[in-house]
Amino acid sequence: MDLLIGLMLALVIGIATRGLGLDRDRALYPIVTMVIASYYLLFAVMAGSTDALIADGVIATGFVALAVAGFRINLWWVVAALAAHGAMDAVHGHLVDNPGVPSWWPGFCGAYDIAAAGWLAWQLSIGRIPARLA
After folding, report:
1. What is the 3-class SS of 29-91, one letter each residue?
2. C-beta of residue 47 within 8 angstroms of C-beta of residue 100
3. Can you tell me the distance from the alpha carbon of 134 to that of 128, in angstroms, rounded to the nearest whole number?
4. φ, ψ (nearest 5 deg) of residue 25
5. What are 48-102's pLDDT values in tens digits?
């Protein structure tokens, strides 16, 4: 169920942001990527785990760097960051012992991330969102 909800939520948000014109600003998906990367930090703080906060902070820094590169250089880097975060969700529990992560989160977030990456890739490939700064 967590996979289905993540997938459906990503599609609904993608359609809504397109319909409302929120994706006209190239910053939308880099910001979404940064927020997604920060959730594991939130879970570490909620659990009071400094070790998880540091480990997830290092991981999040990489995704934030990809989001910034995507905004500055080419939004295809953001597609890669979202897809990579989805893959990371699948193995996060083996990388970091973060006791604050809900059991359903990796599946939900992974499905969301992969679907959002696919949506953004589609929007870029059909030219609805410019990949590069003008």
Report:
1. HHHHHHHHHHHHHHHHHHHCCHHHHHHHHHHHHHHHHHHHHHHHCCCHHHHHHHHHHHHHHHH
2. yes
3. 14
4. -90, 120
5. 999 999 999 999 999 999 999 999 999 999 999 999 999 999 999 999 999 999 9
Return d(Cα 23, Cα 16) in angstroms, integer.
9
Q: How far apart are CA 122 and CA 57, in angstroms?
A: 30
Is pTM beyond 0.90? Reply is yes
Q: Residue 98 in contact with residue 47, Cβ under 8 Å? A: yes
Q: Measured between alpha carbons, how far is 79 from 30 in angstroms, rounded to an integer?
A: 9
User: For residues 120 and 79, what is the distance between their CA atoms, to the nearest angstrom?
Assistant: 6
Task: Compute CA 3 distance to the chain's CA centroid, rounded to the nearest angstrom.
Answer: 15
Handedness of CA 13, 96, 77, 69 (dihedral sign): positive
d(CA 82, CA 121): 10
Distances (CA, A) of 98 to 4, 33, 57, 62, 128: 24, 20, 12, 18, 38
